[in-house]
Specification:
Layout: E1 2-6, H1 11-27, E2 32-36, H2 39-43, E3 52-55, E4 58-62, H3 67-75
Helix pairs in contact: 1-3
């Protein structure tokens, strides 16, 4: 599983990355976590709201997500 956190480095983007990292660790998921800050690469996902969470190339969440919401998105 490849998980990307799309964001430009703002506080919300950093918080989403940290929360996602904690959820992945807690669940023991076999996943690669990447923080994508390159605006041209972010634009390829056609998202207007940042931060955004991408799992295996598909945008699954946008904005401020709680750990509980992230866990649900990663286990569905």
């Amino acid at each position: 599983m490849e998980i990307k956190v799309l964001g430009t480095g703002c506080a919300s983007c950093k918080a989403l990355y940290t929360a996602t990292e904690q959820v992945v660790s807690r669940l023991g998921l076999n996943a690669t976590l990447v923080k994508e800050e390159d605006l041209s690469k972010i634009m390829e996902y056609n998202v207007m709201t940042l931060p955004a969470l991408v799992v295996d190339g598909k945008v699954v969440g946008k904005g401020n997500l709680s750990a509980k919401e992230i866990e649900k998105l990663l286990t569905e």
